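Here is the promised in-class demo. Please do not try to memorize the tokens; focus on the logic of going from shape to residues.
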């Protein structure tokens, strides 16, 4: 996995033979890059809008490709291709459309808004991307129970969709 301008850990070590301990040097750079990537992912999945009257929460549930064109590594250190995310989003909306607390238990709310954002769709709508991801899944959920809504809003800072996948090594 690329980091810090290097193709992978071995490339970093090879390029830094002048350091006292190239592996330790590259390990430090890799750890910092991984932390920055996780921090970036957390910011992208924050709840972006809350409607306290309607008891609805909105934000990016998943992002495949960031606005700069690079793939987003999620909090599980996984990458998802744009077409795979788009297919998964459509299946989620069609099959489920509910929200659970931390992907567990009975549904606490329902999907009220969903769009897979792609450059093609934005162009068709006459909109500019202006910082939005190149490929992302925007969602909104209504949580009817007031106490549950307030608890989720206060304690769950991000949105996420659950699902199953087949992992493929990059």
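The designed amino acids, position by position:
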């Amino acid at each position: 996995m690329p980091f810090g301008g290097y193709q992978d850990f071995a490339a970093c070590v090879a390029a830094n033979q002048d350091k006292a301990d190239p592996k330790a040097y590259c390990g430090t750079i890799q750890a910092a890059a991984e932390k920055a990537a996780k921090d970036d992912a957390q910011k992208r999945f924050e709840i972006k809008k809350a409607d306290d009257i309607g008891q609805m929460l909105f934000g990016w549930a998943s992002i495949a490709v960031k606005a700069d064109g690079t793939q987003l590594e999620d909090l599980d250190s996984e990458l998802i291709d744009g077409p795979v995310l788009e297919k998964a989003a459509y299946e989620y909306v069609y099959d489920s459309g509910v929200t659970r607390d931390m992907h567990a238990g009975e549904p606490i709310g329902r999907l009220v808004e969903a769009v897979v954002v792609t450059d093609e769709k934005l162009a068709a709508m006459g909109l500019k991307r202006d910082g939005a991801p190149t490929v992302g899944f925007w969602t909104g959920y209504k949580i009817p129970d007031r106490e549950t809504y307030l608890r989720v809003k206060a304690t769950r800072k991000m949105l996420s969709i659950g699902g199953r996948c087949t992992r493929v090594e990059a």
